[in-house]
C-alpha cells in the first residue's frame, strides 16, 4: 500500500523545526551536567540519533511517495512525478545543509543513503515496466511455412526410381507392392490427416538412411507426436509381415537346392540348408552397461544373428546379445530363446527317403 505522507511534512525537511528539536534534545540530554563538560558527547549522540531518524524517514518517503507511485500488488508503475520529486529532494538537501553544514559527514552520509534508495527505486521501476511490456505484448507464434506437404514429397519421390531408392532403399514398384500388402493383410490404415502412403514413406525415410524424428518433422511438416505415432503404427504392421516372410520355404528341408546340387563342390554341400553369421550393430547404451557391449574393436555394438537360404532370403533374424559375446554364445542364446521359430535342421528322415540326416548351416569359418 502506498504511503500518503509527503516529504514536506518530514521534520527533517523543515530546518526551523529541526533546529528547535535539536535544541530541545540537547537540553534534555545535558540537563543534569554542565554544558561545557558534556557538549562533545551529547553532540555525538544527537548526530547519530538524527542520522538514524533521517535515514528511516528518507527511505520511507522514497519508497512510498505519491509522486513515485509504484504498487506491486496491482503491478502499476508511474514515473510522472520525477521532476517534482527532484525539486523536493533538492529542498530537503538544502535544509539538511543549513542544519549540519555541507561538509558535515552526517549530511553527506544521509544524502548518500537517499540517493542510493532513489537509484534502487528507479531500477526497480524499469524492471517492472519491462516485465509488464513483455506480458502485454505476446510472443509471436512460429508458423511453419509449408512449401511441399509430406504426401506431395512422397509422390514426387516415387516418380523417380533413383530418388526413391536413395530415400526409401527400394524401387517404386517394391514400394507399391509393400504398401498394398500392409494395407490389405496387416492392418495399415489411413487417418483423417495422414494417408497410409505418407505414413509408409515416413517410416522408410526414417529407417533407411536413417533419419531421426526431427529430420522427419522438417521433411514431412508434421509434429513430432504425429511422426512418432505413425512410425509405431507402421512398425507394428511390418512386424506382422516379418513373421510370415522371414521363414524357410520348406521347413522340413527335404530337397537339395539347385544352386548347391549343380555346384562344382557337389555333393559335399548337398546337405547345407543355409548360411548363418553374426554382424555387429553399433548401439547407444547406459554408462553402467557399456562394458558388456564393447567388442574387440572397442566399439559399443550388439551382435545380431541372421540366417538366409541359397535364394538370399532371410529365414531367421535375432537381435542377439551384447557385442562382447562370442558368435557361438549368440547362436546358443538364439536357439534357446527362439526355439519355436528357429529353423532347426530336420531330424533323421524315416526309411525310404533319400536325405542324409546331417544337415548343417554354412558359416564364415566352417559348419556350425
UniProtKB/TrEMBL annotation:
<dbReference type="Pfam" id="PF13359">
    <property type="entry name" value="DDE_Tnp_4"/>
</dbReference>
<dbReference type="GO" id="GO:0016787">
    <property type="term" value="F:hydrolase activity"/>
</dbReference>
<feature type="domain" description="DUF8040">
    <location>
        <begin position="147"/>
        <end position="238"/>
    </location>
</feature>
<feature type="region of interest" description="Disordered">
    <location>
        <begin position="1"/>
        <end position="86"/>
    </location>
</feature>
<feature type="compositionally biased region" description="Acidic residues">
    <location>
        <begin position="53"/>
        <end position="70"/>
    </location>
</feature>
<dbReference type="GO" id="GO:0004518">
    <property type="term" value="F:nuclease activity"/>
</dbReference>
<comment type="similarity">
    <text>Belongs to the HARBI1 family.</text>
</comment>
<protein>
    <recommendedName>
        <fullName>DDE Tnp4 domain-containing protein</fullName>
    </recommendedName>
</protein>
<keyword id="KW-0539">Nucleus</keyword>
<dbReference type="InterPro" id="IPR045249">
    <property type="entry name" value="HARBI1-like"/>
</dbReference>
<keyword id="KW-0479">Metal-binding</keyword>
<dbReference type="Pfam" id="PF26138">
    <property type="entry name" value="DUF8040"/>
</dbReference>
<dbReference type="GO" id="GO:0046872">
    <property type="term" value="F:metal ion binding"/>
</dbReference>
<keyword id="KW-0540">Nuclease</keyword>
<dbReference type="GO" id="GO:0005634">
    <property type="term" value="C:nucleus"/>
</dbReference>
<dbReference type="InterPro" id="IPR027806">
    <property type="entry name" value="HARBI1_dom"/>
</dbReference>
<keyword id="KW-0378">Hydrolase</keyword>
<feature type="compositionally biased region" description="Low complexity">
    <location>
        <begin position="73"/>
        <end position="83"/>
    </location>
</feature>
<dbReference type="InterPro" id="IPR058353">
    <property type="entry name" value="DUF8040"/>
</dbReference>
<feature type="domain" description="DDE Tnp4">
    <location>
        <begin position="276"/>
        <end position="332"/>
    </location>
</feature>
